[in-house]
Each structure stands twice: as structure tokens, then as C-alpha cells.
């Protein structure tokens, strides 16, 4: 395998960029309050509350702690990137519960 010296010289630059990205990712806030979540997703706070009640799952997308609602940024990213054609998880849970009760 032949590797040119030009490419070897780029390794330090690549490592510097990877380290910068890693620092940025690790310094970002994971848990967001309602206002931060609204800003992050580009929705109003009222719409965030509606999403919380209709689409988000407690213990997955958000957690209640000491009277506050905190949203998990990682789970929000997953929710945003999933296909809209997928069946709503809360709808499935409600249908199962209706069948059990």
C-alpha cells in the first residue's frame, strides 16, 4: 500500500479537527428546558407542550425532575430524524392499553 507523504502531513490537521469536534460535542448541553427545546426545534413553547402530551414519551424524550421538565437532546434528534410515516409510539401504547383494560 502506497501512501503519499502529502497525505501523511494531513494527519495532524485531521486529528486537530477531530479533537475540536469532540470538545464541541462534549461541551454541548444534553438536557434542555421547555424554552431551550422550543428554540432548538424551532417551535413555540405551547407546541412543545403539545408534542410532550401527544408524541413524546416520559422517560425517553423527557423527564420530570423536581417540578421541572427536561428534554433529552439526543432523543429529540432521534425523533426529528425518524420517518414521519412511522406509526406514533404513543398511539401504539394507547391501543395496547385499551385492549388490556
Description:
- With 101 residues, this protein is mostly helical.
- 61% of the residues lie in helices and 11% in strands.
- It is built from five helices and three strands, in the order αβααββαα.
- It has a three-stranded antiparallel β-sheet.
- The chain is elongated.
- 6% of the residues are buried.
Notable traits:
single chain, 101 residues, mainly alpha, Multidrug-efflux Transporter Regulator, Chain: A, Domain 2, three-stranded antiparallel sheet, 61% helix, elongated
What's the gyration radius in Å? 21 Å
CATH superfamily: Putative excisionased domain DUF1233
Instruction: Give the fraction of residues assigned to helices.
Output: 55-70%
User: Quick one: how many beta strands?
Assistant: 3
Count up the domains.
1
Overall spatial form: elongated
Query: Main sheet: which strands, in order across?
Result: 1-3-2
In short:
The chain is mainly alpha-helical and 101 residues long. Helices cover 61% and strands 11% of the residues.
Helix/strand layout:
Layout: H1 5-27, E1 31-32, H2 34-41, H3 45-54, E2 62-65, E3 68-72, H4 73-81, H5 89-100
Antiparallel strand pairs: 1-3, 2-3
Helix pairs in contact: 2-3
Amino acid at each position: 500500500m502506497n501512501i503519499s507523504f502529502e497525505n501523511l502531513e494531513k494527519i495532524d490537521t485531521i486529528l486537530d479537527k477531530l479533537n475540536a469536534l469532540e470538545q464541541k460535542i462534549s461541551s454541548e448541553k444534553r438536557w434542555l428546558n421547555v424554552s431551550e427545546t422550543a428554540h432548538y426545534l424551532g417551535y413555540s413553547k405551547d407546541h412543545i407542550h403539545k408534542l410532550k402530551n401527544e408524541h413524546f414519551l416520559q422517560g425517553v424524550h423527557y423527564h420530570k425532575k423536581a417540578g421541572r421538565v427536561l428534554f433529552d437532546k439526543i432523543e429529540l434528534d432521534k425523533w426529528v430524524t425518524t420517518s414521519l410515516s412511522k406509526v406514533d409510539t404513543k398511539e401504539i401504547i394507547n391501543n395496547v392499553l385499551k385492549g388490556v383494560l
